[in-house]
Amino acid sequence: MQEMEARFGKRPDLNALLLLIGIQELNQGITTFTKEQKQDLMHIATCRLFSLSGHYELERADEDGWPHYKLLRPVPFANLKEQERMLKWHVLEYFALDPGDSL
Prior knowledge:
Number of strands: 2
Strand content: 5-15%
Number of domains: 1
C-alpha cells in the first residue's frame, strides 16, 4: 500500500484496489477499458476475492479471455459495511499470496 501511495500520491481506496485486482486477474496487460468493462473488472475482483473463502469458484474463461465465476454458496453479510470489511480482509490476503500458492 505504501508503494502505491508513493507512486500515485494517494492511498488507493477499495474501488481502486478492486479494479487493479480485476485487471490482474484478466491478465491481458494494460489497455483502455470502458466504464462497463471497469465495472466487470471490479466484479471479477469481487468474485476472485470471495473465492478465497470458498464462496465463488472460477468456472471458465470466455472466448475473449474474461474469467467467469460460479457462486458456490452465498456470501454471509448482514449489511454492506460487513461485506466491505470482508472484502478488505480478502484484499490483504490476495496481495499476501505468492504467485505459486494454491487456494
